[in-house]
């Protein structure tokens, strides 16, 4: 069974700082990996999806990388803003649509 | 395009009752997945439906069941509610499966007293 871990559980940074969130998975035979953000009491918003054949994806200030051999993915956020404060979750899928989620990193960007 | 909608948004039930939650996917999406989110266990996969067929199922007891209709709308049912079923229930839709981005609804907050 796929196990997904996210470290750290919480992170606090000053506005404008670049930061990296980490995601580790145990089974390298993933189909894809997706990053989400969740605001308090809300559903999840998809940020980036990386197919197993890809190494990275970029969207605006966000860049996600995937290294299947080491079982790691990172989400890089450039020039952080207070509006980036949220919980960030990564999810890996081995087959079909069964996603295995990490426990998330709670990010606070201090103005 | 309208997003994924879930009804109701909030529910309060007592132990032993049953509950039905509804999810309407994005128009054109045929896959619907359900998840349970709790502070202790995080997000856990319940099941996935595609074209009215259950395609994947997570590790939950038989009290949790679901179905999908021909218009891709999905319902999940929890019978004989327990206190531990209190959670945020999220559904997600995607066009087909696997390679597609999942789009989540706002969730249904279920409280069992």
Q: What would the average pLDDT of chain A be, to the nearest integer?
A: 92
* Main interface by residue count: A-B, 25 and 28 residues
**Number of strand segments of chain B:** 11
Poorly predicted sequence stretches spanning 5 or more consecutive residues of chain A: none
Radius of gyration of chain B, rounded?
A: 13 Å
User: How far is the first residue's CA from the last residue's CA of chain B?
Assistant: 37 Å
What's the overall geometry of chain B? globular
Radius of gyration of chain A, CA atoms, in whole angstroms: 13 Å
Structural class of chain A: mainly beta
In oligomeric terms, what are we looking at? heterodimer
Low-pLDDT regions of chain B = none
Instruction: Describe the sheet with the most strands of chain B.
Output: 7 strands, mixed
Description:
The complex is a heterodimer of chains A (111) and B (113). Chain A is 0% helix and 58% strand. Chain A is mainly beta and 111 residues long. In chain A, a hairpin with a 5-residue loop joins β9 (86-93) and β10 (99-101). Chain A is globular and about 40 Å long. In chain B, strands 2, 4, 5, 6, 9, 10 and 11 form a seven-stranded mixed beta sheet that branches. Chain B has a four-stranded antiparallel beta sheet with strand order 1-3-8-7, with no helix packed on it. The model of chain B has no long low-confidence stretch (mean pLDDT 92).
What is this structure's SSE topology?
The complex is a heterodimer of chains A (about 110) and B (about 110).
Chain A (H helix, E strand, L loop, with lengths): L3 E4 L2 E5 L4 E7 L6 E7 L5 E8 L4 E4 L2 E6 L4 E6 L8 E8 L5 E3 L3 E6 L1
Parallel strand pairs in A: 2-11
Antiparallel strand pairs in A: 1-3, 3-8, 4-5, 4-9, 6-7, 7-8, 9-10, 9-11
Chain B lengths: L4 E3 L2 E4 L5 E6 L6 E8 L3 E9 L2 E5 L6 E5 L5 E5 L8 E8 L8 E2 L3 E5 L1
Parallel strand pairs in B: 2-11
Antiparallel strand pairs in B: 1-3, 3-8, 4-5, 4-9, 5-6, 7-8, 9-10, 9-11
